[in-house]
Structure formats: C-alpha cells, structure tokens
C-alpha cells in the first residue's frame, strides 16, 4: 500500500518525470501536492497501469490535488545539457509553476539537483511507494503521451501515437529509412548496426 507522504512536518510535493528513455520529443515532469489522508483507488506507479487507467486517474488527480503542475524540456535542450540535467530542469520548472509552494520535495529516483530553499529526499522507486510521486508520474506520463500523440498527426511515419517516441524496433527502422524528424534527440543512439543491416536488407 502506498503512503500518503514521506514526512509530516511540511507541505510536501511529489515529483516525477516521463520520457527520459525516448528517442524523440521532450522530457516531461510533474509536481503534485495532495491533501493529507488522500485516497484514490487504483493510484499507483504509472508504469503499472494501463493507458486507460492513467487517463481515468488524471482528471481526478488534477481536481483533488491541493496543487499540481506539469513542465517540460524540449529535444534541443536535452541535446544541449543531456537528458539527466534536462529531467532535473523540467522538475524545477514544474515546482516553480505550483501555485502553492511546498516545504519539502520527494523525488522519484536516486539523484536530483536541489531546488533553491526547499529540502528534498530522493526515493528509489518512489512512484510505487508514495501517492504524491505516483500522482506526479501519472500526470507527467499522460501529458507527455498527449503531446506525442498530437505530434503524430504531423509525423505519422514514426508512429508516435503508439510508441510515444520510445525506441521500438519499428520506430528505429523508420528513422533509418526516413531519417530524423525535427523532434528527434540528435545525441541519442537511434539504432544499432544489426538493426541497420536488417533494414538495408529487408
């Protein structure tokens, strides 16, 4: 069972990101402050939920949270400062957008660049341990999925509506055959030699 918060002394925001491992598109991050004693059936790590479950939970989280915000870093920023720093920056932007300032942050993962004047703790697999991080994981994931689905209409060859920019074999083959889109991360390894050889001989 997920816990409502990590500590009880300060108003707490849970933070998580989505899209770090993608070949294309931004990395999204969310920060969520939930009410004390918040309960929501089915709320869990977004990776453990179906697309339909995440979409059903998103409006409830956005309505019931004391505060929530979503922000991103685009593919050009990712190429310039690397994906880890871009993930931290996206989280900072989400925290900055909160209309209620938290007194404490808990971050999914084992690393974070401290946000000015707000203490934090990093929680490995925190999205499966704390409700506020789980809520942030769902908002980051659903907002990013929506962004990539909209991009799909402009670049249908990469099938972003389905893969959301992640490195599926079909996505990598499309890059080999068509080339990079303006939204691909140029510093990421899009393909491997065996896949390239297979594509050329297909």
Automatic annotation (TrEMBL):
GO terms for cellular component: cytoplasm; ribonuclease H2 complex. Its EC number is 3.1.26.4. One of its GO terms (biological process) is DNA replication, removal of RNA primer. It comes from the Bacteria. It catalyses: Endonucleolytic cleavage to 5'-phosphomonoester. Keywords: Cytoplasm, Endonuclease, Hydrolase, Manganese, Metal-binding, Nuclease. InterPro entries: RNase_HII, RNase_HII/HIII, RNase_HII/HIII_dom, RNaseH-like_sf, RNaseH_sf. Its cofactor is Mn(2+); Mg(2+). It is found in: Cytoplasm. The keyword Isomerase does not apply. Manganese or magnesium. Binds 1 divalent metal ion per monomer in the absence of substrate. May bind a second metal ion after substrate binding. Its main location: cytoplasm. A divalent metal cation binds at residues 16-17, 108. It holds the Pfam family RNase_HII. Residues 10-200 form the RNase H type-2 domain. One of its GO terms (molecular function) is RNA-DNA hybrid ribonuclease activity. Belongs to the RNase HII family. Endonuclease that specifically degrades the RNA of RNA-DNA hybrids. This is Ribonuclease HII. It comes from Pedobacter endophyticus.
């Amino acid at each position: 069972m997920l816990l409502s918060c990590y500590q009880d002394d300060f108003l707490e925001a849970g933070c998580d990101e989505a899209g770090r491992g993608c070949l294309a598109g931004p990395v999204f991050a969310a920060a969520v402050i939930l009410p004390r004693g918040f309960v929501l059936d089915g709320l869990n790590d977004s990776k453990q939920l179906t697309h339909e479950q995440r979409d059903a939970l998103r409006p409830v989280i956005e309505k019931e949270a004391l505060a929530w915000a979503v922000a991103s870093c685009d593919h050009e920023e990712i190429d310039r400062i690397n994906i880890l720093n871009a993930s931290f920056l996206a989280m900072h932007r989400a925290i900055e957008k909160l209309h209620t300032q938290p007194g404490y942050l808990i971050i999914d993962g084992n690393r974070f660049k401290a946000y000015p004047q707000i203490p934090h703790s990093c929680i490995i697999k925190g999205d499966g341990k704390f409700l506020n991080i789980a809520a942030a994981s769902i908002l980051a994931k659903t907002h990013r999925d929506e962004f990539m689905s909209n991009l799909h209409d402009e670049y249908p060859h990469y099938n972003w509506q389905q893969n959301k920019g992640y490195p599926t074999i079909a996505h990598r083959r499309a890059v080999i055959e068509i080339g990079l889109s303006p939204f691909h991360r140029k510093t990421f390894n899009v393909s491997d030699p065996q896949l390239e050889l297979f594509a050329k001989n297909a």
